[in-house]
Amino acid sequence: MIGISCPAFSIREFWDVAEELLPHFRLWEIVADADHFLPDIKDDVKELLASTELKVSIHAPFSDINIAAFDERTRRYSVNMLRDVFEIASDLGIGVVTIHPGSILVIQSYDKPRVSKLTRRSLEEISAHANEYSTVIALENMPDMRFAICKTAEEMQAMLEGLDLKMCFDIAHANTTSQIDKMLRLKSLFANVHVHDNGGKRDEHLTLGTGNINFKAIIKTLEGYRGDYVIESMSLESALASKEYLGKLLGQ
Questions:
Q1: 14 vs 49: CA distance, rounded Å
Q2: Based on the number of CB atoms within 10 Å of its own CB, is 9 exposed (0-12), middle (13-18) or buried (19 or more)?
Q3: 233: how many CB neighbours lie within 10 A of its CB?
Q4: d(CA 214, CA 236)
Q5: Crossing angle of helices 72-91/112-128, nearest 10°?
Q6: 99 with 140: CB under 8 angstroms?
Q7: Residue 8 has what pLDDT?
Q8: What tens digit of pLDDT does each residue of 62-99 get?
Q9: How far apart are CA 217 and CA 211, in angstroms?
């Protein structure tokens, strides 16, 4: 199924966004941050699922948490916040929750290996309780940015090794790190795919077909993948153009 996600939606009124999307999409990946923090909107999501044909997946919050925080209280808070989101998503029957790895902030930049170590520790704690939820938890690969880890297929494979977690493959993120082909070798781990375009240098969230990504070849390689394709767009207008482009490649 082709869905839509947009971080800017999370500062808008929930039902205004839902009504805007309903004529165009069957899936909304809610960025559960800011005004759309899942514990605060769970009743709205429950009503949306019960009263419309719009299906929902969740992008877990990432702006106010860091599962690689050096301060143990902050790290624990971040893990517990994510666990609250997983529990609510499971109760609502939501199939997939996508999460970010830890981030390299100012202090973390002095000890980057520790960021990876703490991220793995947090993911191990999350994985230990994953069988309590019906929702699938998917770790997203990151773009070529200073704050990011999990930018390569090697990092992603090592971070997920032996854990009861899956992967969200962000095609455009992988394009900025020249990792698309290597990431595609991990497709057995994919539970979600994020789709947007860029020129290969930075994370731009462009309309499909306006950057340099060869989506036709990628979709062919992903034959057999049964999860969703979520268009991450800067606007509904861009998302609709991307939906038409992607729909043709998928034969929809």
A1: 13
A2: buried
A3: 26
A4: 23
A5: 40
A6: yes
A7: 94
A8: 999 999 999 999 999 999 999 999 999 999 999 999 99
A9: 15
Structure tokens at 54: 């719009």
User: Mind listing the domains of the chain with CATH numbers?
Assistant: 2-250 (3.20.20.150)
Number of Cα atoms under 13 Å in the Cβ half of residue 35: 11
- CB 121 within 8 Å of CB 82: no
Query: Going along the chain, which residue ranges are E strands?
Result: 2-5, 27-31, 55-59, 96-99, 136-140, 166-170, 190-195, 228-232
CA distance 95 to 204: 27
DSSP lists the bridge partners of residue 168 as 140, 192
Tokens 């949306």 belong to residue = 48
Length in residues, the chain: 252
CA–CA dist 133, 212 (Å, integer)? 38
| The one-letter amino acid at 70 | F
* Extended strands (E) in 106-217: 136-140, 166-170, 190-195
In the numeric block, which tokens belong to residue 76?
A: 């624990």
Distance of CA 198 to the CA centre of its chain: 17
pLDDT tens-digit series, residues 200-218: 999 999 999 999 999 999 9
Report the DSSP pairing between strands 2-5 and 166-170.
unpaired
What single letter denotes the amino acid at residue 64? D
pLDDT tens-digit map of 99-124: 999 999 999 999 999 999 999 999 99
